[in-house]
Amino acid sequence: RGENVPLNLLQEEMVYQWSKKKDAPKPGVTEKYIEDPTFQKNFVSDFSKAFNGKFKSLQYADIDFSIPYKLVDKEKEEKELLTKEDKKALAIKRKEIREEMKTKYGKAIIDGKEVEVGNYMAEPPGIFMGRGDHPMRGRYKPRATDKDVTLNLGKEAKIPKGNWGKIVHDRDSMWIASWMDILTQKRKYVWLADTAGIKQERDQAKYDKARNLSKEIESVKTQIVKDMQNKEQKTKRIATACYLIYRTAMRVGDEKDPDEADTVGATTLRKEHVKLTENEIQFDFLGKDSVRWKETIPAEGHDKQFYDNLKEFISNKKDSEEIFDGITSRHVNAYYSTIVKGLSAKVFRTYLASSVVSKYLRGHDNIKSESDMKKMFHGKLANLNAAIMCNHKRTIPKNFELSLQKKKDTLKNVEKTKPWEKSEVLLKKAQSKIVKTEKQKKEKNERIKKIKTVIRKRKGKHVERIEKLELQINLTEK
C-alpha cells in the first residue's frame, strides 16, 4: 500500500494468474471468486511468501491490482477484435503446435510396439480453484520442473535430456512419468492413452469382474439383506452400508484427503445428511468433487429394513455424528469379498453403471440400420444414464444458454437452405439441351447422370448435417 515494488518473474506470474481470475464467477452464487475472503486470504498468504519475509503482515487490501487488471482486459479486448480470418489462422497455428508436440511427446514404445500417450503435458502454474468451498481455493499452484519428475523407463531405454528427479523401471505400472503436486501433495501421472492395448486389457479385466458379478448378484443381495438383520451390530452396520451402495451406487466415502472440501459417501454419512419421513428416506449431501447428492427412496420391500436400520443407527446421535461409526471402506470391501472373492465397492459401482448402459442399449437394439451418428448418440445417452445414476455432474458453462441457442439458430438456418438448388438449375438446363448426334446424346446423358449424383450427395449431406445438429441439441439439453 503506497509503495511501488518491482516484481521478479515468479511474483509477476502470481499476480498475472490472479488477475486472470478477476471475472470468474463462483458456481451457484452471485459473487466472483476474487470477492471470496478465503480465496483472497489463501492467495495473499502464498504471495507474501514469495517476498522472503519482507511483507509478513501483507493484507489483500494492501495490493493494487489495477495495472495487471488493465493488462488482462486489454488482452481480452484484443482477442475480441480479431477478425474471423485472424481467429482461423490462430486456430490453425495452435493445431500445428499441438500436432508437433503430439508427434514429439505423445508416443511410447511398450514391448516393442508404439502406443499413444494420454496426458503428456504437466498442468501449468496457476490459482487453485477446487470444487465447491475447497479450503485451499485461491492458493498458488507452482509449476512442476524436471527435478520434480520421476520417469518410468525400460532398463535399455535412452534417458531423455533433463535433470530428472528419479529414474525407475517399474514394469508392472502403466504410467511413464509422475511428480508430486507441491500444493495438494497428490501424485500426478502421465498414463498411456485409452487406445493402448495394455490399457484396454486392464479395462477389459475390470469390466469382466463386473460382468461376473451379474451372475452372483442375487446371492450377494440375499446375503446383504440377511445380514441387515444380524444380531451382531458391526456386521449389521457393514451390511446396511453395503446395501446403501447397492441401492444407490453411492461411493464408499472415506477415500478423500482430510484437507479437501467437506464431502461424504456411504460410510461417512452423518445424521444431518439423512431425513426419515413416515415412509421415505431422503438423502441430501455433497459427494465427491462437491457435487450435491439428493435422492429419495420409498421405504418399501427390502428398503423397509434399510429404513428401520437407519432409524436405529441415527437415534440418540447428534447431527454431526456419522451414521455408520467405526465402518470404513476396508470393512465394506472385506465384507463383499466374503460373499464373492475379489468383490469391492468399486467393482459394485462398475457393475451397476454397466447394467444401466446394457439395459439402455438392449432397449434400443432396433437401430442397427440407423446412421453411425445416431448409434453414437444412443451410445452417449446410455453413458449419460449411467452418469446420472452415479451422480456424475459437471459445472454448467457460463455461456451454456448462448451456445445452445447458437446451435438452434444454426439448425433453423440449415433447414432453410437447399445446397443442391444450383445443381437442379444445371440439371434442367442439361435436360432441355437439344442434341442431334449420338455422341451429343451420350454426352448429355453422362452430364445428367453426373449432376444427379451431385444432387443426391448434397441432399444426403444436408440430411446428415441436420441430423447431427438435432442430435447435438438433444444431447446438450439432456
UniProtKB/TrEMBL annotation:
Keyword check for DNA-binding: yes
Enzyme class, first EC level, given as a word: isomerase
Reactions performed catalytically: ATP-independent breakage of single-stranded DNA, followed by passage and rejoining
Coiled coil listed as a keyword: yes
Enzyme nomenclature, EC number: 5.6.2.1
GO molecular-function term, one example from the UniProt record: DNA binding
GO term, biological process aspect, one: DNA topological change
InterPro entries (alphabetical): DNA_brk_join_enz, DNA_topo_DNA_db_N_dom1, DNA_topo_DNA_db_N_dom2, TopoI, TopoI_cat_a-hlx-sub_euk, TopoI_cat_a/b-sub_euk, TopoI_cat_euk, TopoI_DNA-bd_euk
Coiled coil spans: 427-454
GO cellular component, one term: chromosome
Domain DNA topoisomerase I eukaryotic-type: 127-477
Alphabetical UniProt keywords: Coiled coil, DNA-binding, Isomerase, Topoisomerase
Family designation: Belongs to the type IB topoisomerase family.
PANTHER family in the record: DNA TOPOISOMERASE 1, DNA TOPOISOMERASE I
Protein name per its UniProtKB record: DNA topoisomerase 1
Organism of provenance: marine metagenome
Organism placement in taxonomy: unclassified sequences, metagenomes, ecological metagenomes
